[in-house]
Amino acid sequence: MGKEDKGRDYYIRKGFKENYGLLMIWGGMYLGHWIIPAVFLIDTLPHLTLLVYTVYLCLDDLGPMAEAMHFLVMLSTACTSVVNSLLQRNRLDKILEAMGRGFFDYGNTLDEESKKEIKVHKDEVHRRKTVFPRLFIICVLISGMVLLSRIYIEYFISGHYKEPRDNGIVMVVIEVYYPFRPSTELYVIAFFFQYIIVFICVGIILGTDITFLCMSEDFCLQLRIIGITLRRCDQRAKLLCKNTLSKQKQNGCILSEQDYFKKCLEYCIAQNVEHHLMIIDLFYDFKRYNRVMLLWLLVGATFLLCLSGILFVSDNVTALSKTTFLLFLSTELVHTFIFCWYGEQMQILSREIGDQCYNSEWFDNSSIIKHYILIVQKRSNVPLRLSAAGYMDVNLNTYSNVCIKLDYI
């Protein structure tokens, strides 16, 4: 590749730093920083039990029941994301290392037009990886702040804090059952630990979505680069032949210029094949890393979207609760769309590689590259697909099905 190898750990740290890795640490999703995930899991597991019991106690009251179910699904999804990330650290590091290295280096085989076209796409990816995460962070932080300050907003509106119910359900961040009264010290501790849960959940949401966004952007970029370099393989081979032929003759090369050009063309295509195989291998790890998490996210998002729709049209839910759920509804729609849109893009771009290969000037050298074209097209007919544990593809068709369910509600 022609670059100094600074070691695997260096490139992992580089990929981690350049792709908002600190958000994963905030959410306790990166192995090696054990305090946050330990606190979150120990804090969350008893709260999940309390939330299930809260749902049971509020079967006749839609407002608190729905809120408890909403929080129950969110915490279950968050726990899945944390455990999944910690267990699959090796896959994550493999992808981060490739991102830190820049995936693949074509060396001196890129002609000026290819460099310009690739630079345009790289600049677009850099801009999106800068703007989109910031917008998403703002949306999630607003939702988190509304949730954390909800008890004070209700006090400002009504002039008093919400009284505990007779069945033991009290308002902390949300209404939840506790086996002790608000006047006790245990209530203060529970209040504190619910705030910790919400704080870490914000980090989990940001770490999950933004890490996925950055990795997906890089995969899309690499698929575009493969397409560009395949389409311009003839021009790349001519440049390589021009720049190295004289040196090869000085070293005793007895090939004619035409034969040496064929060697250069084969070398350029071999680079594309190597790059393509690298991305396929990395995408397999990316797919395996996200498969279970995507299943929980999509199923949970579908449930929460439908639940939010029911609450929004209900007459038995307060205006403040509806406003809170409207924010959650907007966040969930964006949250689900991110995964489905990038899944669709990677699927389309991986399929288009075969077309890009066909669009090259293969007819001038058909005897050399026609076999490569057939192989590449055959592989491109099986596009890269993200799936939710094999139960559904993660693409815009899935997203439309989720929205149809919401519209039906």
Describe this structure in words.
The chain is mostly helical. The chain has 13 helices and two strands, in the order H-H-H-H-H-H-H-E-E-H-H-H-H-H-H. The chain has helices at 8-18, 21-26, 35-57, 62-87, 89-101, 112-148, 150-158, 185-231, 233-250, 257-313, 319-358, 366-380, 396-408; strands at residues 169-171, 175-177. The chain has a two-stranded antiparallel ribbon with strand order 1-2. Strand 1 and strand 2 (175-177) form a beta hairpin. Helix 3 runs antiparallel to helix 4 (62-87), helix 10 (257-313) packs antiparallel against helix 11 and helix 11 packs antiparallel against helix 12. The radius of gyration is 27 Å and the shape is elongated. The chain starts with 7 loop residues before the first helix and ends with a helix. The model has no long low-confidence stretch (mean pLDDT 80). Its main location: membrane. InterPro entries: 7tm6_olfct_rcpt. Pfam families: 7tm_6. One of its GO terms (molecular function) is olfactory receptor activity. It is found in: Cell membrane.
Which key features would you list for this structure?
olfactory receptor activity; 409 residues; 13 helices; receptor; transmembrane helix; 77% helix; elongated; two-stranded antiparallel ribbon; 7tm6_olfct_rcpt; mainly alpha
